[in-house]
Amino acid sequence: MPTQVIDAVLFDYGGVFTHSPFSAAAPMAEKLGLAHETLLHIIFGPYDRDTDHPWHQIERGEIGIEEARNSIKSLGREHGAEVDLFEFFGAIAAITQGMNDAMVEVARFAKAEGYRTAIVTNNIAEFSEHWRKTLPLDEMFDTVVDSSQVGMRKPDPRIFAHALECLGNVAPHRAAFLDDFQGNVDAAIELGMHGILVEPDPTEAIAKLRQLIAKS
Ligand SMILES: [Mg+2]
Questions:
Q1: What is the distance between the alpha carbons of residues 38 and 77, in angstroms, rounded to a whole number?
Q2: Which residue has the higher pLDDT, 120 or 2?
Q3: Which terminal Cβ of the chain has fewer Cβ within 10 Å, N or C?
Q4: C-beta separation of 88 from 43 below 8 A
Q5: Bridge partners, 118 (sequence order)
Q6: How remote is the CA of residue 113 from the centroid of ligand 1, in Å?
Q7: Cα separation of 13 and 9, whole Å?
Q8: pLDDT for 103
Q9: What predicted TM-score, i.e. pTM, was given to this entire model?
Q10: For 119-200, where are the alpha helices, taking DSSP H only?
Q11: Cross-strand pairs, 175
Q12: Ligand 1 centre from 2 Cα, in Å?
């Protein structure tokens, strides 16, 4: 009798199927004369929490991109820097070209093996048209949970609960979750899920997932 450890695999999108957008801030920080961490904090706020920082609000679909741009500009000025969100998006686009083929392959494998699959992404409504074209979502995933559509964002435990419910009430301990941000992985682990951190080199994360979905 084959033993199966999990029933579902949940994937973050940015930094998992693409290269990590966080590293895009480094050259911009240098240009602005800010520490990398400071610029990340201005743009993303305390990313391991769910707050009313403009980036968090835009990810929950509460404000539009222009409003977030203006608010983040003000936050930048508190540090004496002109931080333009659109310039940052340009930097992200430049480094996140191309998909992580090995991750796409393991996601396809999981689906083909009968695992339920989902994307759980903190995203921005204005980006939707672009990123949704980068993968055949209907073919690869049973459900796509986009923070800007559901009004909840990681690490809020409710978005994980929502995704598990969409997959047919999968129990947390029967699901794996992959993300390139440690705070999100920690939140999933706290709920009882198998959290896997995807590093810039995703080899180890893919090996861990393959181990969980290997049927023996
Ligand atoms: Mg990510």
A1: 12
A2: 120
A3: N
A4: yes
A5: 10, 143
A6: 25
A7: 13
A8: 97
A9: 0.94
A10: 128-131, 137-140, 147-150, 157-166, 182-190
A11: 8
A12: 33
